[in-house]
Specification:
Helix content is 69%, strand content 0%. By secondary structure, it is mainly α. Helix 1 packs antiparallel against helix 6.
Length: 138
């Protein structure tokens, strides 16, 4: 695929991206795995960058889940190739938010534990009632 680096051309070919999408790669100067690694923070940003392009939206393919998945796979393969070639991927300037769960997430995680504990208590009560019931009928 003319205009793309050999490594990126192989990846794009592997996932069968349509020619008009490959043209957007060229138009946006995303022509190598190194450019992808240095430019995009994650697969969502990468996919959105191409799928929100006017030509993709106008053609109706901007909402294609198949294309979104294919672009994400292109991103991951490009990132892997760039790392193997010694490129350093772009890192977000913002702090990682997943290290400390938010209060809402913490509370959501605690609720199932309460439900499990309640379920165990109910099972114990049911077992106890069953034992009592057997004792009375004997």
């Amino acid at each position: 695929m003319a205009g793309l680096g050999q490594d990126l051309a192989e990846i794009v070919g592997q996932y069968g991206l349509p020619p008009d999408l490959v043209q957007i790669f060229r138009d946006k100067a995303v022509t190598s795995t190194a450019v992808i690694a240095k430019t995009f923070q994650d697969d969502e940003q990468f996919a959105d960058f191409f799928l929100e392009e006017e030509a993709m939206v106008a053609s109706g393919r901007g909402k294609s889940l198949r294309l979104r998945l294919a672009l994400k796979m292109v991103y991951y393969d490009a990132l892997h190739t760039a790392r193997n070639n010694g490129e350093v991927p772009r890192v977000s300037d913002s702090p990682v938010s997943s290290e400390a769960p938010s209060r809402a997430e913490s509370e959501a995680e605690e609720e199932p534990e309460k439900d499990e504990a309640e379920a165990e208590e109910e099972e114990e009560q049911a077992d106890g009632e069953a034992l009592l019931g057997r004792g009375r009928s004997a």
